[in-house]
Amino acid sequence: MQVSKNLVDQSNRTEYYQQCRALAQAKRHEHGVVTASLNLLVMARIYKKEGVAIDRRKLKGNRIKAAYYCDDGECSVLLNTTPPREPRLFALAHELKHHYLDREKIMNGQIECGDYNANEVIEKGAEVFAAEFIYPEMEMRQLIGQMGITNLSCTARTIVEFKRACRACISYTFIVKRFVRFGLCQATSFSKVQFTKIEEQMFGIPVYKRESFKLARARKKAKTQ
């Protein structure tokens, strides 16, 4: 799957994004990606096959999620392990796009990975690639149809129910962005909504957050020390 480098400009951004999406589909097929089983471990295996090392570091804050480097043919991605698994998976998929399409320019210093303001189209293309690689639009639309979600029925609780029904490793931010793209809600509809709290109200507090679980884990850790 080839993406024309001449498409990376403002006038051709739509076609460029379409080709980034098509590339994601091709790479999913090449690596035998199944949405329900795509996780950080599977992504690490894909990185190994592609010859890209993952440098995992616990960085303060979430400003830097990941960054792609390629020096003298040695390619690696710095991954911040502080964020939850969903944004980490998305970040790794995002950096894969840079490996496939932007490696030469990054090696030559023509662009800097993560500089969104200077390379908006390139970075947006990486977001498009990552979203399609993790959860193809067609699969998402199918589930939306099965659940009967429309722009008239889309509420915060609907989004929580969708995430619970969805087998992809995606965040609430991912879902809202896609729903906006599909015309199911406005970009500002859920800007102040705390979906995790709503989920806990609807389905209860997860086991790992319960005090009994935390105490049991603390006791187990104490015994191993």
Return residue spans where pLDDT drops below 50 for at least 5 consecutive residues: none
Global structural class? mainly alpha
Q: Main sheet, how many strands, which sense, barrel?
A: 3 strands, mixed
How many helical stretches? 9
> Which term fits the overall shape?
globular
Could you tell me the number of beta strands? 3
Question: What strand order characterises the main sheet?
Answer: 1-3-2
Portion in strands: 5-15%
Write the layout of secondary structure elements.
Layout: H1 13-30, H2 40-50, E1 52-57, E2 66-71, E3 74-80, H3 85-107, H4 120-134, H5 137-147, H6 156-165, H7 172-181, H8 195-203, H9 211-224
Parallel strand pairs: 1-3
Antiparallel strand pairs: 2-3
Can you walk through the features of this model?
With 225 residues, the chain is mainly α. It folds into 2 domains: 5-134, Orthogonal Bundle (Arc Repressor Mutant, subunit A); 137-224, no CATH class. 54% of the residues lie in helices and 8% in strands. α3 crosses α4 (120-134). It is globular, with a radius of gyration of 19 Å. The model has no long low-confidence stretch (mean pLDDT 89).
